[in-house]
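Sequence of HNH nuclease domain-containing protein (Streptomyces smaragdinus).
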Amino acid sequence: MPHVLVLNASYEPLGVVPLRRALVLVLDGKAVSLEDSGAFLHSATKVVAAPSVVRLKRFVRVPYRGPVPLTRRALFARDGGRCAYCGAVATSVDHVIPRSRGGQHRWDNVVAACRRCNHVKADRHIAELGWRLRHQPAPPSGLAWRIIGTGHRDPRWLPYLQPFGADEALARIDGVPAA
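Predicted 3D structure, token representation.
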């Protein structure tokens, strides 16, 4: 099922919801559709354009949001789906300092890795192997990472996410330098 970007009344990105939830918000008059996906939903008496981006009519106060949650999907987005050691397609998660040696499960200690590198590294430090990281792991920041970390992406969302750091985030994901 397609997903829809939800913006606050101030155009601040709030999150991503399933199309069905977004459509209920629009039909209840709680949100307005800013971008259509190009698809149409049919009922017995109506045809409605499926939204891709909706904006709430009333401002919703969002409590303080801590750091971006460390999920497998967000980690692969941060690392562009590439192994932090060799650059191959990543299929697993690796702790730079192994957990068996006191490493924490935190953004600055976790990288995406290919199966081969993860197997060879096992529970050793990279210094023991003479390896180097292609990039230093760090926690992502910005509201755009909360959206991009969900794994749902739509090019129609980009203009609404750009003011919140989407250019840098998408450049890291796609491997293209930010303009």
